[in-house]
Write a structure and sequence with these properties.
The chain is an alpha+beta fold. It has three helices and 20 strands.
Length: 359
């Protein structure tokens, strides 16, 4: 027997003659599950607690329920499991009093194999009253699988990414799954979505139906699971596939090969590219410009004496040039003495005058 102490409150219209209102009633366990054989008799207990400051009398109402697209639909018809459950016809509780109440489930010998479902409502409205009033009632759910010719089957009607997107800049990513139970028993499907990278290596595993929700026969339920974090850097192409176990012993599997999708973290990539451009392009360019600016400023701030020294060096170079010219003339003069050519007449007269003066 699996139980969970969960408080379930339902507001509804109830027929009765004298208006009544339950401010707070607590019952548990909220859900009871059994696997039985035809002819079995089950005994158990549940509790009711009057959470008001007044003495109240509470009455049970038995109904069947089914599921449509994951939503429970309660039927007031008297049949199936709703007629197999026996408990007290009423209970009176003083303020804040809690009582444990027994119940019995008698499985008929000819009970059809498969799933059977009922709810026992508790409220202050007697079941045989007429009229309309709004009351608060608390329900205890009974889910039973009767052994026999059990048929097990299931389908994954849809497995995709929310919004049918294929390209993402980052996590999270939501996956939608629609599961149909083709069995004649209720099932609690469990499974995983496996995400693999472009090389076929497993990147992450995402559990499906971690809340352990049940799906009734011939009913469908949709799940949305989220891939919101990863210990690895996610980038490039990925493949998603799903496998779900179901059945009386969860030993049957239905799978979907899935699809490809892409993650391109453009924000991170943009920052990296900007960083590389700064390091290898802008920074060297800035350093070169800064060096040129330093050299220019250094030249503009050079003292005037340095310029005079440069002029002196230039004058020295000019004197050297003149000396070279004189030497060149002397060379030419020597060449003229040694030459066979006659010297100019003006030069001869000057030589004669100099000799006469000396005498």
């Amino acid at each position: 027997m699996k139980t969970g102490f969960i408080l379930i409150f339902f507001s509804s219209l109830v027929w009765f003659a004298t208006p009544g209102f339950v401010r707070a009633l607590i019952a548990g366990p909220a859900k009871m599950e059994y696997a039985v054989n035809p002819g079995d008799v089950l005994d158990g207990n549940f509790f009711l607690q009057n959470d008001t400051s007044d003495t109240k009398t509470f009455y049970p109402i038995f109904e069947r329920f089914v599921e449509e697209n994951g939503e429970k639909k309660f039927l007031s018809e008297k049949s199936d499991l709703s007629t197999w459950v026996k408990t007290a016809t009423s209970v009176t509780l003083t303020a804040n009093e809690q009582q444990n109440l027994p119940f019995t489930i008698e499985i008929p010998q000819d009970a059809p194999p498969g799933g059977h479902f009922a709810v026992v409502w508790w409220s202050t409205a007697p079941p045989d009253t007429k009229g309309v009033a709004i009351v608060t009632r608390v329900g205890l759910l009974f889910l039973i699988n009767v052994s026999g010719d059990i048929r097990e089957g299931a389908q994954i009607l849809n497995f995709n990414i929310s919004g049918l997107k294929r390209f993402f800049g980052s996590l999270p990513i939501n996956f939608d799954i629609e599961f149909k139970n083709d069995s004649n028993i209720y099932v609690k499907p469990t499974g995983n979505i496996e995400v693999k990278n472009i090389f076929g290596r497993l990147t992450t595993t995402i559990p499906v139906n971690g809340s352990d929700l049940q799906i009734l026969p011939a009913s469908k339920r949709s799940f949305t699971v989220k891939w919101d974090k990863s210990s690895k850097f996610v980038f490039a192409r990925y493949a998603a596939a799903i496998a779900i176990n179901y059945g009386q012993h969860n030993d049957k599997t239905v799978a979907d090969k899935g699809f490809w999708f892409f993650i391109f973290p453009w924000k991170i990539v943009s920052l990296v590219l900007l960083g590389l451009i700064f390091i290898f392009v802008l920074l060297p360019l800035g350093i070169r410009r800064y060096n040129r600016w330093i050299i220019k400023k250094a030249r503009e701030g050079m003292p005037a004496g340095n310029n005079h020294d440069d002029d002196h060096k230039n004058d020295g170079n000019d004197n050297d040039d003149d000396t070279n010219d004189d030497n060149h003339d002397d060379d030419n003069h020597d060449d003229g003495i040694e030459s066979d050519k006659e010297p100019p007449r003006g030069n001869i007269l000057n030589l004669k005058l100099k000799k006469e003066e000396e005498n």
